[in-house]
Structures are given as structure tokens and as C-alpha cells.
Design a protein that fits this description.
148 residues, mainly alpha, Annexin V, domain 1, 2 domains, two-stranded antiparallel ribbon, 2 strands
Length: 148
């Protein structure tokens, strides 16, 4: 072989070696730290990071429905709550609803008896123990930690 061919083969061998070592380093050290497209670890064993499944607009609609159902006297809230929250799938969905509710003033079913608070404090104020317990149980059955 002439010198030119030998040098071309040596350079090609070095290039292939660099590529192989580079792939090994990438697969062994870099890829596991960057995670996967679902936010979990790159090793396939880390669960994906949960995402909200409802939009902010849907959360606002649920918050508005819950407030209107709590307004007034002698309302039975549980069925309306279950119906409004049936699309929630995780705690992030519930948090979106709580955030959308913000701080509102609701009537306390008596003249000049108004209460201002977030969704959780408003529910604790407006609902009796049984209703609150049923709402909490409904969310828990969906795997939602509600702080109710």
C-alpha cells in the first residue's frame, strides 16, 4: 500500500473510533440524565411527571359552577360537585380549579353573612360535615389529594 492509502485508512479508523466512543459516552452518561419526553428519567424506570388534563378555561368553568351551587340556602352540593368535577383526573387538575376560583365572596345564607375565601375554605364554610366528607371521598376515589 502506498502512504496515501495508509494515512486515509488510519484517519478513517480514528474517526470511526471517535464516533463509537462518543455514542458510548452519550448512551451511558448523557441520555440517562436528560430524561424522556414525558419528563421521567431516561432509564425507563422513573415515572413520568404528571400533567394537568384540563385547560384553564375548563377549570374556570368548574370554579364558577361550584360557586353558583354553593350560593343560596339549603342547597345539596354533593351531586353538583361530582358532576362538575367528573372530568378531573389528578391533583393538578384540582389545583387548577382551586387557582381559578381564587378568592371570592359567597353568601352565607343570612342577611349580611358573606364569606370571602378560596375554594377550599369556602367549601368548609358552606358545606356541612357530611357533604364535605362526601366531596373529599369523591376526589380521593379519583386519586386526587384535595386538602378538604
Amino acid at each position: 500500500m502506498n502512504k496515501k492509502v495508509k494515512s486515509t485508512l488510519v484517519i478513517s479508523g480514528i474517526a470511526v473510533g471517535v464516533i463509537v466512543v462518543g455514542l458510548f459516552v452519550y448512551k451511558t452518561f448523557i441520555k440517562p440524565r436528560t430524561g424522556n419526553k414525558n419528563g421521567g428519567g431516561g432509564d425507563g424506570n422513573t415515572p413520568p411527571v404528571p400533567q394537568a388534563t384540563i385547560t384553564r378555561e375548563a377549570a374556570m368553568s368548574i370554579a364558577n359552577t361550584l360557586q353558583s351551587e354553593m350560593d343560596g340556602c339549603n342547597t345539596y352540593f354533593v351531586d353538583a360537585f361530582k358532576n362538575a368535577c367528573k372530568g378531573l383526573q389528578n391533583s393538578l387538575d384540582w389545583q387548577l380549579v382551586v387557582d381559578a376560583f381564587g378568592s371570592r365572596t359567597t353568601d352565607g345564607c343570612a342577611p349580611f353573612n358573606y364569606y370571602t375565601g378560596n375554594l377550599i375554605t369556602t367549601m368548609k364554610w358552606e358545606l356541612d360535615t357530611d357533604e364535605l366528607s362526601q366531596c373529599r371521598a369523591y376526589l380521593n376515589s379519583k386519586g386526587i389529594n384535595s386538602a378538604l
